[in-house]
Design a protein that fits this description.
Blueprint (H helix, E strand, L loop, with lengths): L16 E4 L3 E6 L2 E11 L2 E8 L20 E3 L2 E3 L2 E5 L4 E4 L4 E5 L2 E13 L2 E7 L5 E4 L13 E4 L4 H4 L14 E2 L2 E6 L2 E8 L4 E5 L6 E6 L4 E7 L3 H12 L13 E2 L7 H13 L6 E4 L20 H10 L3 E6 L3 E2 L5 H8 L14 E3 L2 E4 L6 H17 L4 E4 L30 H16 L7 E3 L2 E2 L7 E3 L7 H16 L5 E2 L1 E2 L8 H11 L6 E2 L15 H16 L1 H14 L4 E2 L17 E3 L3 E3 L10 E5 L2 E10 L3 E4 L4 E4 L2 E8 L5 E4 L2 E5 L13 E8 L4 E7 L13 E10 L2 E10 L7 E8 L5 E6 L2 E6 L2 E6 L2 E6 L1
Parallel strand pairs: 14-28, 20-21, 20-32, 21-22, 22-26, 26-27, 27-29, 29-30, 31-32, 43-47, 46-48
Antiparallel strand pairs: 1-2, 2-3, 3-4, 3-5, 4-19, 6-7, 7-8, 8-9, 9-10, 10-11, 11-18, 12-15, 13-17, 15-16, 16-19, 17-18, 23-25, 24-25, 33-34, 34-35, 35-41, 36-37, 37-40, 38-39, 38-41, 42-43, 44-45, 45-46, 48-49, 50-51
The structure holds ligand MIG.
């Protein structure tokens, strides 16, 4: 398997003639014929379909776009001199015989000379980047946030199995997720290009030839979706509207997760729960990796080690600890094993071209693979998985090895639809259909509840079914640093619910790295410590009291802010904004174009984690305490430093030194952060009493707090409300107004304001649903990170 190679543009044949039909423009040349069609899809979104005469199977096999957005309204081309024009509401597309030009929301883009071409089934679209100064999205990638000067190949792989060297590096290309979305930036304007082709493809943003963006699909036809800006947020929201947004997760799934490949018996699980309690650490879920199974047979337990898994899982859940098991797609090829036999009877497995069951080599030995593209297979799978979840009292599903990983057996022989559809049409979508089938299983097992699924591999649209973790990273500082741009770009690419293995999966972690990774990741959408079985153990208490205390500060801060994170998920479900965002999302200035060592949670919290250590960064020792210094870029306005408890003026970069138990964490002036003040007992949280932490130095605060039951799917049919919160400074008084509306009972949550204000604030006027009361502000204290800060309440 070769990565990073592409087809030289000189190997493509370009068109030189243009003819216009009723709904398509035909581009042809000596050895090439392409048809281009334009469809208005939704507000600010156009589809350009490129059909290449050489493509043998012209069907669109991609499931990326939501079914309701597939038809659209066709735009009729008009000739203007020798140019064909698609004039649509969202923008304008012009084609002459050799060039494509487009303009959406003030962003113009054109192909270069020779920028449209075909080479067999391959399609080349080659754009001029001279006005472009940034490139984002790209799905799950390594390296940096800004992809200008970089290239990416879209083929999902089991990265470490195929490229063993990767975990020592930070510059490799292969990843587990294929989302060919490029968001181009030109000054303060953005434009999204989503290339919907489920096959292998390449995007090269000026790496091979500076100043040119190359898209090359290697087979099948491509639908290019144009997503209008002008802001980055508009592009991201339009892409999310097109491909789907993450459904609301259950609250427990937003807590802290503990995993490790090697938890191998019931005693060990019970010990873990006891260790968390003893270490005074909340934990919301414990995970079972492959060792729980009987000989790696799916939907079985090793009964010698786990005599009564349902009883164990119920016991843990009573203490607020949920459980999740790994589920691989590979099914042991063993006549007599009921899962295999029933799948065979249902013709549920992938086949070779001649119709044999495709055989791979994974954990159980010879394995067969469910063909999740078939509805019949998905129903069969959902039946088995739902029964397993119910019988074992499990709460979530972890989908691994679905890239798909087939061991020494090549994947290319694996075909779909009883052998009729070649591998490459569904390779990148294997995990997607597995996630769809598995989500159905969760719904079957618990018809009213919210499923929780985590998958390694994914493509555009998979966020509708599952969260994603970024796969096998390693315990080193480069992988910690890379985890920020990787998760940020994945969020911009539609997968809001994601996160890395905190602490690193491969290799041995050390104390300082583990602490810094917990701090960096404790406000990521998904927060799980996971490691490989042959590495040093890395549960929070493994390195003694000082690292444990620092990690405790990070984990507790997550739980304190869980209501805020939940609100970010709610807002994502409604509008598509990512949970964590590069600063560029809200501040489009050039100083933020490449900034990827700090991030925002929602629009109110700024995290600037320490990403160097062990003597490599700017280390200093003051009063015997070692600190790491880094620059922190604060956007304009005031920011409240939650680490030290003081206001800082933004609009500058400042040096910040943080001891091991300190995380540079800032709240924006004008922020309202819902804070959980209650006891920390794993996932057992009573959110009917919430504190509203109001950061009002000069700016009024506004926040929409969504009201729902935190656990059912009733919000999906509109049963939710919103509490509109405003806080304004009037002399020495802070006026807070909370007004609830929507399809939900009022006064289900008791909000208590806590003020981080101007020192002159003396009084609070609180109006809740029309009832007003005035009270003096009194000095108080609140826990943040490893400190107790003085506040007014
Ligand atoms: O061949 O299940 O990425 O998280 O612990 C390795 C064992 C298979 C790969 C996953 C990792 C998991 C491991 N799996």
């Amino acid at each position: 398997m070769f990565f990073g190679q592409k087809i030289h543009p000189l190997n493509f044949d370009g068109p030189d003639r243009l003819t216009i039909g009723t709904d398509a423009v035909e581009l042809s040349g000596a050895n090439v014929r392409l048809w281009v069609r334009c469809t208005e899809i939704a507000d600010g979104c156009l589809r350009l379909r490129f059909e290449n005469e050489r493509v043998t199977d012209g069907r669109q096999h991609s499931d990326a776009v939501l079914p309701e957005h597939r038809p659209g309204r066709s735009v009729v081309p008009q000739m203007e001199r020798d140019t064909a024009v698609f004039a649509a509401t969202a923008g304008r597309v012009e084609l002459d015989a050799t060039r494509l030009r487009l303009e959406l929301a003030g962003f113009s883009l054109a192909t270069v000379t020779g920028g449209i071409g075909g080479c067999g089934e391959a399609l080349l679209l080659n754009f001029d980047l001279s006005a472009v100064d940034g490139c984002y999205g790209f799905g799950e990638r390594t390296k940096h946030l800004n992809k200008l000067g970089d290239s990416a190949e879209y083929l999902t792989v089991d990265v470490v199995a195929v490229f063993r060297h990767t975990y020592a590096r930070d510059d490799y290309d292969p990843t587990y997720v294929a989302i060919p979305l490029a968001i181009l930036k030109s000054g303060e304007r953005f434009l999204g290009l989503f290339f919907d082709n489920p096959g292998r493809a390449v995007m090269d943003a000026g790496k091979s030839r500076p100043g040119e963006f190359w898209y090359q699909s290697l087979g099948g036809n491509t639908d290019l979706y144009l997503l209008a800006g002008p802001t980055l947020a508009e592009v991201v929201r339009r892409h999310a509207a097109l491909t789907g947004r993450a459904p609301l997760p259950p609250l427990w799934a937003l807590g802290y997760h503990q995993c490790r490949w090697s938890y191998r018996n019931a005693t060990e699980l019970r010990e873990l729960a006891a260790q968390f309690a003893a270490a005074d650490l909340p934990v919301s879920a414990l995970w079972y990796d492959i060792d729980y199974m009987d000989g790696f047979r799916l939907f079985t337990w090793n009964r010698a080690e786990f005599p009564d898994p349902a009883a164990l899982n119920r016991e843990l859940k009573a203490a607020g600890i949920h459980t999740v098991t790994i589920v691989d797609p590979g099914i042991k090829r063993e006549p007599g094993y009921a899962v295999y036999d029933s799948g065979q009877a249902r013709e549920a497995f992938c086949r070779t071209a001649s119709g044999r069951e495709y055989v791979g080599k994974v954990w159980p030995g010879d394995t067969v693979f469910p063909d999740f593209t078939l509805k019949t297979t998905r129903d069969w799978w959902a039946g088995w998985l739902a029964e397993f979840l119910r019988d074992s009292a499990l709460d979530g599903v972890w989908l691994d090895m679905n890239d798909p990983a087939t061991g020494y057996s090549r994947t290319e022989e694996m075909r779909f639809d009883h052998g009729a559809v070649p591998h490459d049409r569904y390779h990148n979508q294997y995990a997607h259909f597995m996630a769809l089938a598995s989500r159905r299983a969760c719904e079957q097992a618990d018809p009213n509840g919210r499923p929780f699924l985590l998958t390694r591999s994914a493509c555009a649209g998979t966020q509708r079914h599952s969260a994603v973790w970024t796969g096998d990273n390693a315990s080193n500082w480069r992988h910690l640093r890379m985890s920020l741009p990787c998760s940020l770009n994945l969020g911009l690419s539609g997968v809001a619910f994601n996160g890395p293995d905190v602490g690193g999966f491969m290799d041995d972690v050390r104390a300082e790295l583990l602490v810094r990774w917990h701090q960096a990741g404790c406000l990521f959408p998904f927060y799980r410590n996971h490691s490989a079985h042959f590495t040093r153990r890395q549960e929070p208490w493994q390195f003694g009291p000082a690292p444990l205390a620092a990690i405790r500060g990070a984990i507790r801060t997550r739980y304190r802010l869980l209501p805020y994170l939940y609100q970010c998920f709610f807002a994502h479900w409604l509008a598509g904004d990512p949970i964590i965002r590069p600063l560029l999302y809200h501040y489009p200035g050039p100083e933020f174009s490449d900034l990827d060592d700090q991030y925002l949670v929602g629009d109110a919290l700024l995290v600037a984690p320490i990403l160097h250590g062990e003597g490599q960064g700017l280390e200093s020792i003051r009063h015997g305490v070692t600190a790491q210094e880094r620059p922190v870029v604060l956007p304009p306005g005031w920011w409240f430093d939650l680490n030290r408890g003081e206001w800082l003026e933004g609009g500058r970069s400042l040096p910040y030194a943080a001891a091991l138990d300190e995380l540079p964490l800032f709240a924006r002036d004008g922020a309202a952060l819902p804070y959980y003040p209650g006891p920390l007992k794993n996932s057992l949280m009573d959110l009917s009493a919430i504190e509203l932490h109001l950061f009002c130095r000069e700016q009024p605060a506004r926040f929409d707090y969504f009201l729902d039951d935190w656990e059912t799917r009733r919000h999906e049919s509109g049963a939710y409300g919103v509490a509109r919160i405003t806080a304004e400074i009037e002399g020495g008084r802070l006026r807070v107004v909370i007004a609830e509306s929507g399809d939900y009972p009022t006064d289900t949550v008791r909000f208590s304001p806590v003020v981080y204000g101007h020192p002159e604030l003396r009084e609070l006027e609180l109006t809740i649903n029309g009832r007003a009361a005035i009270q003096p502000l009194r000095a108080g204290q609140r826990d943040w990170l490893c400190r107790t800060l003085d506040v007014q309440a």
